[in-house]
Amino acid sequence: MAGNDTLSQDEIDKILNSLSDSSEEGGGEDIVAASLEEKKVREYNFRRPVKFSREQQRTIQLIHENFARELSTYLSGRTRTFVEVRYASIDQITFSEFQQSLTTPTYMAIFSTDMLSGSAILQIGLDIGYVMIDKLLGGPGVAFEQLRTPTDIEMSILRKESAVMLRSLAKSWSIITDFDIMLDKVETNPQFVQIAPPNEMTILITMAITVRDVQGFINICFPSSTLEPISNKLSTRMWTQSFKKSEKQKETLKKLLMLSELQLSATLGNASLELRDLMNLKLGDVIRLNSFYEDPIDLNVQGVPVYKTKIGKNKGYYAVKVEEENKDLLEKLLIQQSLKNEEVFEEDKPPVEGGEE
């Protein structure tokens, strides 16, 4: 070793003095604390592993925010009062913890899909369930002070309403994947429901619902094994791509609707004749219809009565004047016709060889 690389005694003493001064001032503890901050260790619980990332949870949240809006609109019209449904939270808990968090009795609809394996749960608190039933039956929508097991009629009403809710849920999930939801059974005791092992992780989506002055919660529980086949689609990137695709399809469908050709026919009335009367008809006989000359007549679109019209003349031709219309039925007919046109267009389109279409 060269002579200039060797530390002198004075230099060694200075280094030792500086180290002792820094330890007395707490500098050593600061160094240790800084090193600990640099190494942030995240605890991992093997009994409760995290199955879905924050990005996947965010996508599930967006889906159920749309579901909450759909549900709010439906229930407001169904109960003839303002109903607010909003997304509250999303958690990852074990199935046994979900069961223990529920009170008895409650309402639980167990459903499955044609695309995903296993089952899931739609749970509605009976505190809000009885208010909905009261409003549907014409009552003021008063909450019960003490909850009881629903009767057969009340269970039938809740089953029907939950079936409609599940169809709205499938519509909200269609932005990620299309599937049909089947309502398998309903239960009032959480301990009788076993759709997953007790220690399996689940995704629990909670929505707050307010009917008049009564507040409650609706929970949707998906076992991790049920959502695992589509876990790769639960990302904001897939959400954006699907949204853009659906907007493009919407424009295409709109163009097809505007080009649809529909057949119109006006029906003056109907009459029923026996075959022998029909065979004996002669010139000058009068057949009585089931309508009066002052009554509006039906204007049929593709054989379906959509408009109520008055008969008359215009520029020497017989004509009808629209008095009343059924827009919902007309829209349904247009969509059916456009879908048929789209199928014919796809069949007639020649195949593309090489390159992009």
Automatic annotation (TrEMBL):
Transmembrane segments: none annotated. SUPFAM superfamilies: CheC-like (SSF103039), Surface presentation of antigens (SPOA) (SSF101801). The lineage of its organism: Bacteria, Thermotogati, Thermotogota, Thermotogae, Petrotogales. Belongs to the FliM family. InterPro entries: CheC-like_sf, Flag_FliM, FliN-like_C, SpoA-like_sf. GO terms for cellular component: bacterial-type flagellum basal body; plasma membrane. It is found in: Bacterial flagellum basal body; Cell membrane. This is Flagellar motor switch protein FliM. GO terms for molecular function: cytoskeletal motor activity. Residues 257-324 form the Flagellar motor switch protein FliN-like C-terminal domain. Keywords: Bacterial flagellum, Cell membrane, Cell projection, Chemotaxis, Cilium, Flagellar rotation, Flagellum, Membrane.
